Amino acid sequence: MPPLKKKKAATDKAVPIPDFYRATRSGRVRQEPARSTESVSGGSRRRAGASVNEDTQRTDTVNPDEPNGNDDSEAEASNHETGEGSNPTGLEAPAAKKRGLSKGYEIMKRTGTGGKIDGIYVMENGQSFVGPNESLLKTELGVVTRLMAPIQKYYWSKLTEADKHPLFKKLEDEFDIDTAGADARKIMEKRMKKRFINYKYAMHAHYLKDPQTARTDPPVDMNIEDWHMLCDHFESENFIKRSQINKANKSKQVYAHTSGAKSLDQRIYELEKKKKQKQQEQQPTQEERETDMEDADSVEEEPIDLLLYAKRYQRADGSWVSEEPQKNYLEMQSMWIEAKAEGKPISGRDIFEKVLKKKVKYGPKENPRSAKELQLQEELEATRAEAERKSKEFAEKIQSQEEQLKSQAEKIQLQEDKLKSQEERFDTQAEAMNQMKDAHDKLQRQVLVIARQLPHK
């Protein structure tokens, strides 16, 4: 990884919002009236051309870019209605403040003076980003994907390299990271694909609020033409069928985790960082070092993978989300203790693979297959089976024809042998007749000779 560049200090000076953040997907600047003090469902509507300071001074606006580790995609789809029984007094409660769509203002403030944001690294396994500014990159990936990826393509797989190039260029201008690197680009594209899917899901949720009037109420940052195209897509038979399949797959999820939107690799990075800081802060004395060396074989911290698993499926009070993850953790802990007692070192990853049957949710792994991929796999298997069946039938047919040809060839050979035998017999008879003729001719000549020798009367 190239040496990190020194990050320039953020300035408090108001930074004008670039046209990029005020433009709709079609490139036209959105014209909206001044924002009222009431909360707007689906995200904060900002005036075109408003400055960062002007927006952040409003008391009714929640800063969407405050680094809190939340996933931008989850924030976009977080407009849930208040549940039944949430207002037991029966009094009318004030409208709840809702986190709106992230606009990337924190990124603009950090890069407004021309610098790039550093502190982002690629995990050794090449599967994700980690670092102190990982959450900023994750949020900006969602913003850039939402505002620049052509939603008219409907599916990320249909985007061409020309469609994706502006997105990578934008991120390369903002972050000190090489988007041309194989690992970095693969991670970014994977994240963008997920954000694209989540944004489309949020648009579908907006559509489902009232399908009858949805066409007249486009979401924030989307022009009416694109929205009508999306509505047509949501009403198509293919989309409805896919939605039902995905819904059925989602219902099969055994249990959910409690670790929020932060990636597991990022949590590993933070746990290891805290562990190193703790070790540096607690400098042991010579006597403590000797004691630690004596107890090194008996006292050893369990693998960070196991600690992370426990954090992921435990609530704040220490209780487990369900019995299954607790059972898995106890089994993994028992396996680790047993291996340590036998003097056979084993990694947390190996324990995961043995206990969870390779259902590890981070690090190098096979990518989980979507409903479409599963359907394509089933179709491929069916096609392969049909091809094998036809190939087998064709081979059997060819073999049958070969046997028939062989039988016919044998019959022809028999007939040829019979004809040859008859020809030989005919030749023998002809030769015998020729011999008889020769004998007859010879006898006639002898008779003539004898007749000439007899006296004439």
From TrEMBL:
Pfam families: Transposase_24 (PF03004)
Protein name in the entry: Uncharacterized protein
Coiled-coil segments on the chain, per record: 370-446
Biased composition range(s): Acidic residues: 289-299
Key words of the record: Coiled coil
Region Disordered, residue ranges: 1-98, 273-299
InterPro entries per UniProt: Probable_transposase_24
